[in-house]
Amino acid sequence: MTQRAPDDVAQALVRAHARLGAFAGRVAWYDEVGSTNDLVLALAAAGAEEGRVVAAGRQLNGRGRRGRAWASPAGAGVYASALLRPSTGALPLLTLAAGVALAEGIGSAAGLNTIVKWPNDLVVERGGRRLKLAGVLAEAGSASDESPHVVLGFGINVGVAAYPRDVAARATSIESELGRQADRGLVLAECLAALWCRYRDLEEGRSGVVLDAWRQRAEGTFGRRVEWDADAGVRSGVAVAVDESGALLVRSESGERRVISGEVRWV
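^ that's the sequence the OP posted. Answer follows.
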């Protein structure tokens, strides 16, 4: 059963209402859930309309790419999932568009600049290290649903929290970077507004605008070495660009390679 959203969240969503598009009035709040993505996947399979959002104060089974756990302690972050029913043309760049949107939303809400890292992370550079601030998880619907859908989940570290040791060593939060309190409700509202705007860019044929925005925010990641898992084993090279389809272009000893999926490690 949904709960009443905390005042900071409810008030921020009301103020942003005109910019939320299909998300306006469709944000359901839970104090605690297993996974926001799982709830929205179930809603989608039942035929829910585009724009449904589930947000939570805590996730017990939050996850990232490849089934990894996403630490989601109570009151420390923004954990949300949105239901989209994109056209075929919008699908390839949806995750990149979400990364741009989160970077823009965090910038608007907190004044913090972030770097997007292919394919789905937001990081902050500090002392020569890149610390993870947020992540995106896109999951497509099952074949049983009559209308194709994508559930776009995101987690943003807002407040200082006691993360597991392996997470704490490579993570940061908005408040840790700013040295002051951040408005969690405003972060959620601004990220949803930016997500709707960038989603409409894709749906209305402005994919080039989205790619340009992503490349500007990812510029510091190019020129770095990466490793990825291929059928023939682990490959490596230097990341040089992202092409028009959203694939990562890597310069290797055997020539330029397009990486479109799988695990990429920045080394």
